[in-house]
Design brief:
Layout lengths: L14 H8 L6 E4 L16 H9 L4 E4 L1
Parallel strand pairs: 1-2
Amino acid sequence: MSEFKVVRLVKIGMPHEEILKASHDVDLIVIASHGCGSVMCEIEKVIGSTAENVVRHSKVPVLVIR
C-alpha cells in the first residue's frame, strides 16, 4: 500500500485563487463539485464556480468529487 500526504490549509481570499497558489507543490487537487454558493449560471449547474475555475486554470490534475 502506498503512502500519501494530505495537506490542509486555511487561507483568506478568493477560493479558486488561493487553491491555485497553494497547488504549486502538489501532485493532485481534490475538490468538491459544489460548495454553499446560492447564485448559479448555466455552467455552474454542472460544476460549482470554484471547482470550475480550479479545473480551468490548474497546472496539476484535478479530481472533482460529488
